[in-house]
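Recall that a protein's primary structure is simply its ordered list of amino acids. Everything else, from secondary elements to tertiary packing, is in principle encoded there. The following example makes that idea concrete.
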Amino acid sequence: MNLQEYLQARHTKGTAERYQRDIAKYLQTVTEAKAINATYSDIMDYIEILRNKYSNAETIKVIIHSIKKYYYWLNHTGQRKTHPCRNLKLRDKTNRDIQIQDLFKPAELELLMERKERYKDVKTKNQIIISLLIYQGLTRNDIVNLTLKDIDLEEGTIYIKPDTKTNSRTLKLKTKQIMLLHKYINESRAKLCKGALPCASLILTKLGTPEQGEGISYLLETTKHLFPDRNLNTKTIRQSVIANLLKSGHDLRLVQVFAGHKYPSATERYRQTGIEELKAGIQKYHPLNKTI
């Protein structure tokens, strides 16, 4: 049983593919020959590489979970008797603080919609992705999990599935989003699907396969030149959308439902005051060792 068969027999297709991608990157970095005989120390060395590459602790934990699957496969197929990281648990803490200096105003987020594209079909799809980020404040996983059934063009709404961190919700679409989605579903996406593969997923890659998230991250990577001094990613965009709603006077409870937060306290963290914005600005341009 090869690795792909092992993973697909135990996990959903999307999860198995994610494990395979993480494992492939691991083997490419350390080489397969060394990986097979890796020790706990070798795994920790790779974790240091990940820490230098990723600032999000959760991302590192997910990758290590994938690597554990690789060694379970080696055990299962008899290629190795021991597991070098079976009981490894990272204590890296996820930074849940909202970095005000990295937030974007509504007008700044709109600039992302003006991204130039070489191909018409790709432009429509990318504009939909960006619009879902800057108008509905969706996470990368929210977008990846969207299906055609979640879109109601007649009602002008989109249904967001629940996950371990957020509640389900049905949000209104902007008029231009409805137009983009109609065009994409009936033209661009129809060409990609071609009836050859199950096409339940809303966002497809240029190969006609369901988007797994890499395309979304790459899309934002190519727009970072617009804000070279700030962290532009799906997290800071979502934080900006929520913070902007509160700042413009929307009721906390309504924003909580919009964001899918399970508790009001999660939404409360996004409230900003004048002094907080002032401190963020001072820290950004004149870093101090003490707070005011």
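The CA atoms of residues 186 and 274 lie 46 Å apart. Confidence is low (pLDDT under 50) at residues 285-292.
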